[in-house]
Structure formats: structure tokens, C-alpha cells
Amino acid sequence: MQDRSSPSTLHDPHATETGPGGPVLTMKDVTLAFGPKIIQSHIDLSVRRGSIFAVMGGSGCGKSTLLKSMIGLLRPSCGTFMLDGEDYWAGNDRRRTELNHRFGVLFQNGALWSSMTLGENVALPLQMFTALDSASIRQMVSLKLALVGLLDAIDLMPSEISGGMRKRAGLARALALDPDILFFDEPSAGLDPITSARLDDLILNLRDGLGATIVIVSHELPSLFRIADDGIFLDAVSKRPIAHGSPKQLRDRCTDPQVHAFMNRQRNEKDSRP
Amino acid sequence: MTEPRKGALPASADMPVWSIVRGRDGASLTLSGRWIGRETALPRFTAQDLTANASRETARTPAPGGRGDIAPSSPAIQRLACDLSGVSAWDTGLIAFLWDVRQACTEAGIRFDSEPLPSPVQRLLGLLPENARPAQGASRRKGRPAFLERIGGGFIAMLAETGAIAALARQTMQASLRILSRRSGMRRSDLLNDFASAGPSALLIVGVVNFLIGAILAFVGAVQLQKFAAGIYVASLVGIASVREMAAVMTAIIMAGRTGGAYAARISTMQGNEEIDALRVFGIPISSYLVLPAVLSLVITMPLLYLYGCLIGMLGGYVVAISMLDITSLGYFHQTVIAFGPGQFVFGLVKSIVFGAFIGLTSCRIGMKAGRSAADVGIAATRAVVIGIVGVIALDAVFAVIANSVGI
Predict the structure, then answer these.
(1) Which domain of life does the UniProt lineage start with (chain A) (predicted)?
(2) To which H or E segment does residue A231 belong?
(3) Do B105 and B178 sit in the same domain of this protein?
(4) Chain A contact for B41, CB < 8 A?
(5) Does residue A117 sit at the B interface (CB-CB below 8 Å)?
(6) In a domain, B201, yes or no
(7) Residue B382: domain span
(8) Which residues of A touch B136 (CB under 8 A)?
(9) What's the complex ipTM?
(10) Closest of B32, B156, B82, B35 to residue A136, by C-alpha
């Protein structure tokens, strides 16, 4: 059996000068737990500015939990989480709220506020956290919805649109405050291949256009191979990361049998699940 | 090339500023300063900025935060290129402005040359529709119908809803008859859960409210009846009021708020999770699986709670009467027993059964027709409580008329 104590690393997780930029988001020896139940431990990762970082792993391994800890919804049991060199959890609530304005989050089902139209969903953060007048807010709302191709749906309620539209509307809302770090939780889940490919294009365009850093939680291998240029692979059994690297690197060069099986969509011989 | 004419407004280096410089091959839109949309209201750009000013010597000073000058010239602009070399920082606010410019160019028949723009700006502009004007309001709602149309629509909807509740009542009745042949489709565990929720769990609040109502009735009655040395009739007052009206109505109001709201919220949440759709696909009748346990549990528990409410209400009256008036426990008990006949008891029992069926049916119906969002769950619960309470009081008025006509 392969030793899981040291993850299979295809690059240095704390490299600073490689790729598009230096690290913007860093985790060092982080453990995530709900009470006594440990979800993941010994997480070391570094997300470089302007990169698309993938969080990969099988169902139930803690990918979404890791994402929650990155956006401040779950405090790690131990370890440090740094944002541009600043310890995220060292500050008070007010400071964390300020830091959260750098985040834009696309939740798995869009998480749109159901009592508001799409336009109002995008407008709310602008009304709450900027001093813009209503005309400027309308202009920005129109732009954000137009960027995701939903300008015509500005007056629709979330219950009146499809799942794919809901995700794009969630993305428009995530872009409301022009965040420099975007988090996507399963953006392609439940979408048809064409819609999924369009969403990938949109993510790449937003990364290149806005210069945003993107963290993406997904199982969708074609999407990951296409857009992600770095990543981490979490293991549900050992409850720790077992590989670092881009999805393509993990597919082509990783020797861990589970990672290899996952990235090549094969059955792992040691896995007894049906 | 003509030099841009500076505007009259003093501008700091960070202020977003635009100007159009005209040359032989076309015009150049020059931007400078910080174009950060979330920091300041950025200037808007319309087709008038190109056409109205293009052939005149005018300087334009646009909306707050920006300054636009158009240099004097004679020929109309054929092509517009953008120069962003003076822009120190930007976000999507710049993209919004350039989108305006591109649409203004389209409207004015001027070619917008995006090639000189930096690649990220080009990519974002490439995502935006060519000829779509931004909508005029994020909160723009669909037009509301006229006043009379709303009243008419509301009345028709009310009739339709009454019919739907009647149909649901019929289906539930048929399902309850199938219980005898054990083919109702209702699970015993669901009935027991609903029964526990509507019965034992409600004892405390029903008891407290009825005790206080009985005590208040006795207090008010005692103050008045004492003046006529008729304090003993406090027992009659509390007894008749509890048995005939207060116990049934107050218990029903409590159950409408407590249990009816919970049923509506539960069923509307199931609606949102597509659980109702799943039941329908399997062919499991909603009336048997969801509505029957809810209605049956209320129809069974309401008369029991009514009796309990009567006793506790009379106890409340007794406590106040004994402490305020010079009457004995036996006297109070005797006066209570002779105050009302069995007909009034039966009347109260029938009312409580009807109230229970009404609350169960309406709350389930409201949950079933609710929308699928989180907000809709709240709306359904509120509506179930309001309709439950108003409906119980309206039904009680109908019962009062019936009681009067049959001489109870």
C-alpha cells in the first residue's frame, strides 16, 4: 500500500514565482473538523494569483468543506489560512468582512435570494457596500448580467429560470463587487455538456478579463482538464490531500493509484464500493 | 490631429475623465484616471455625445465623476478608437462605460474599433451583446393589473380555491373511508406523528391560554356581578362561555397558528424539494399520504383539546372566583353544572371537529399550492395561520346563527 503520509506533489505547493503570479491564498497544515469528526487534515496549498485552482476528490471527501473554510464559513480546527500574507482568522469580524469583499462565491445551486429578481440579487451587494447612486447600480447590474448572458432575464425571479441560468445568475451576483478571488462550488454539476462548455469559456474569459484568481470545486474531468492550471486532490479514506498539481499533470504523471483511477475515470482495484 | 480641449471642471489625477480627439482617419476616445465602478459613479456615454456634438464646437461635461470634451472639427466621425493609456486602474466600471460607447457608436452608425484595447478589456467586451441597451431598472417589475381587474381576479381565485378545498375534502373523505378496508395509503407512523404534534405537544399552550381566558372572564364577571350580590353567577358565566364559545374558538386559533402553519410550511418545503412531484409520479395520492393524517389528527385531537380547554377554563374561573368572592367550592361546582345542558356541550364538540377539519384542509391546500422557493415557505405558513384564524372566527359566526335558529 502506498504511503499516504506525504502527498504526491507535482509542484511545490508554496512556490511563489511560478505561473501567473505569486500566492494569494495559502493554507498551512490546516485541519477541518465538525466537532470531533475530522473531515480533512494536513492541508497545505497555495493558490497563485490569476490561476484557476481545482479542488478535486471523490464524493464525500470534504471538497465543499475545504471551500467553506476558504470563504470564511468554517474556521479550521488548526493550521493557518493566509490571504495575501494576512492571517484570515487573526483579525476580528469586521476585518474578516472586509476581506470577504475580495471574494465572490458561486454556490452549487446558485443560492439566489428567492424573494428577489435576478437584478435585485446582483444589486443588493452594491447597495449594501458601495456609495453608488441607483443609476450607477442599475448600470453595473446590467453589465454583470450581460456578461453572463442574462440581461433579458433581469426582472425574472429565480424560480422562473432554469438550473443553468441560475448558475450564471449566481455568477453575476458573485461578480457584483468585482472580487479578485472567485470560488465556484461544482459549477458544471447538473448542466448539459454544451452549457457546461459555455460556462468553462465564461470562467476563462472572466479570469483573463478581470485577472481574477479562481478556486473551483468540481468532479467534471473534461472541464477541469480544460480550465484548471493547478489543484489539490483530497482523499476520503486517509482524510488528507494525496496529490498536488494541475488536473492534466495528475492524469498523466501521478503514480497514486486512486488519483490515477479518478483522473482517468477508471475503477480503483482497491476500492470495494460498487 | 486636434488637441483635446480641457474642460472647465478641475479634475484630480484619479478622476475618471474622457475626451474625444478627432483626426483624419477617425476619432480617438481617450480615457484617463481611475475607472473603478464600485468607488465612484462613472460617466455615462450616449449616442448624443457622438452625434450632437460631433459637428459643433462644444465641450461636454458629463455626469459626476467624469469630464468629457469633444474637440472642434468639421467632418462627421466615421470610426472611433479608444486610448486607455492614461487609465491608472480599472474594473468592470470601465467595461460598462466602453459598452455604452460601443452601443452609442452602433446607434450613430460609427465603427467602434476595439483592436487597440488591451486583451482583457477586449475579452470582456466580447462577452457583452452588441446592440442591447442595458435595461432601465434592476427592480423593474411587470405591469400591475388595474384595480377592478385585481378585484375580479381575486374573487375568481377565491371561488376557484374554495372549489379546490372542497375537492380536497372529498378526496380526503374518500381516503378516510378506505381506512376501513386498509387501502387508504396512509402510513400509521405519519398519523401518530401528526397526532403527537397536534395533541400532547399542544396541551401546555392550550391549557395556559384557556386557564387565563377563564380567569379573565371570572374577574370581569365578578367585578360586575358583585354589585348586584350575584357573584355566584360567575360560575355560570365562565361555564357557558367556555363550553359554548371560548374553549372551542381559542383552541382552534391556537391550533391554526401552531399546527396549521407547521403543516403548510412542511408541505411547501416538500413542494420545493420536488417530494410532492415524486409522490405524484409514483401515483401515491397526496390526499391519502399527506392530507389525511394531518386532517385526521386534528379532527381527533380538537374535540379532546376542547374538553380539556373547557375544564381548564372553568378551573381558571374557579381560582379567581374563590379568591375574590365569598362562595364555596361546592357552590361554584353546583352552579357550573346547572348552567349549561348537554346540547351546548355537543354544540361545542361539533364546532371543534369542524374547526379541526377546516384548519387541516386549508393548511394542507395552502402548502400544496405554494411556490418552490424559501420565501414561498414563509408566505405559505403565514397565509395558513391568517386564513385559519379568520376562517375559524367566520365559521364560529355561522355556528352562532345556526345555534340561534335551532334554539341551542
Answers:
(1) Bacteria
(2) strand A230-235
(3) no
(4) yes
(5) yes
(6) yes
(7) 149-167+174-406
(8) 138
(9) 0.77
(10) B35
